[in-house]
Amino acid sequence: MKKAIQQKLPYLLVLLLSSCALIVDPLDNGIPPMRDVEPAEISSLIVKDLESIGQPTRKPVVAVYASSFTDATGQRRSNSQYASFSTAITSSPDAYLIRALKHSDFFDVVERRGLDHLTKERQIIRSAREKFDEKQQLKPLLFAGLIMEGGVIGFESNVKSGGAGARYLGIGGSKEYRQDSITVSLRTVSVLTGKVLIEVLSTKSVLSAAVSQDVFRFYSNNTELVEIESGIVENESVNIALQTAIETAVLQTILEGVEAGYWDIKEVNK
């Protein structure tokens, strides 16, 4: 009896492995794609889109404070098996905003996150110069005309979910997906007047997908059962989704600023 089962196992393994070819990418086969581009290309999205906008005649100087661009959701990472104290969103979303502003090459960004360290180093330089009677003065720090504020204001779990499956003669498979949503708010505030010049919202979907395959057979007059299962789960990185949402918000800010006349675009000589 055992010998008969052992003889059948290779055929079951062949069936299972052939069906597993479907789970190489669990986000294909009609389910919404996890992302439109590869992660390595995301960093260049903002640069590619700005090529059609042009460069400003004078780069606006902006400041981003760590306390002015935060995660306002307080959302915890979901886990059905145990309590999780890890946040679903990074505690430093301002790092992505600074990166997007710098990569846009449209703004001059001044350091405000580590301002205490900067002022301490400048004080050390002043003390050293006074000791050696150097009369050369440090240039003043560049001040910002605009402050970027806002943060992550929404993270909705399980906005949409679904799946499909089929089984025939003991061979079956299923596929499920879930869609979350992350929303970013970005405000451009004038330091001179305190007026909110531009306010934009950007939303990005976060997709997760799971694929499973299984095969079972009865042997020895339906008294013994052999079953084999396999599966794979793929989750889109929340950080990549956050980065994309922030870059989209920066692009919207630039476009609305051009439309409102807050900054001018250089004329390209043809």
Architecture overview:
- Mean pLDDT is 77; it is low at 14-43.
- The termini are far apart.
- Strands 1, 2, 3, 4, 5, 6 and 7 form a 7-stranded mixed sheet that branches.
- The protein is 30% helix and 33% strand.
- The radius of gyration is 28 Å and the shape is elongated.
- It contains 6 helices and 7 strands; from the N terminus they run αααββαβαββββα.
- α4 (93-104) packs across α6 (238-260).
- The chain is an alpha/beta fold and 270 residues long.
What is the class in the CATH system? Alpha Beta
Q: Structural class, judged by helices and strands? A: alpha/beta
- Rounded mean pLDDT score: 77
The percentage of residues in β strands lies in 25-35%
Number of helices: 6
Shape descriptor: elongated
Architecture in CATH? 3-Layer(aba) Sandwich
- Could you name the ranges where pLDDT drops below 50 across 5 or more consecutive residues? 14-43
Beta strand count: 7
CATH fold-level name: Rossmann fold
Rg calc: 28 Å
The CATH H-level superfamily is ABC-type transport auxiliary lipoprotein component
Largest sheet: 7 strands, mixed
H and E string: HHHEEHEHEEEEH
Number of domains: 1
Distance between the termini: 83 Å
**Relative helix content:** 25-40%
SSE inventory with pairings:
Elements: H1 2-19, H2 39-42, H3 45-50, E1 61-63, E2 69-71, H4 93-104, E3 108-110, H5 115-131, E4 146-168, E5 171-190, E6 196-219, E7 224-235, H6 238-260
Helix pairs in contact: 4-6
